[in-house]
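Thread: quick sanity check before group meeting

JM: Hey all, I'm pulling together slides for Thursday and realized we never actually wrote out the predicted structure for the chain we discussed last week. Dropping the sequence here so it's in one place. If anyone has concerns about the input, flag it before I start.
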Amino acid sequence: MLAFTVYDTKKIMAYLLKGDIFDHFAFRQAEIYSFASFSINGTKDETLLTEEDKEPYCLWSEIKPIVFETVKGKRLPKSMKLVFSLTKEKTNRYPNAKAVFLNLLFREGTLLCTTSVAEETFSLEQKANKQWDEDILAFFKKHEVTIQIET
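JM (edit): ok, ran it. Output follows.
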């Protein structure tokens, strides 16, 4: 698990809500506290899935307009928590991983990010965790988002 802070919230929120760099992530859930409380579940309705649709969660690109409408305005939300994961197909790159997560918590003008990996079976090696942490750090570096790793 990795925890880091992004202080340039304006840049990351532009990437998140107007850009497309997060669009390939599966969206798990959101909790937004603004003028009212909003909770969004990204799980697809199984009865509506087709055989080609192997992903049980919506993509961020599908949910992003809803979140944008919820948070836009003159006042920033009090807080916002977003939970992303990699799609099933991309999770296969990580040994023993059942799911790979990126959690974003926006509160009081800063963004705290954490990573985690749910494993298929218990392992002391933590290879998937290490690989995911390296990959997410590279992702933020590639998009020139400055972070501070929390210890």
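AS: nice. The chain is about 25% helix and 30% strand. Residues 127-142 form the longest helix (16 residues).
JM: adding both to the slides.
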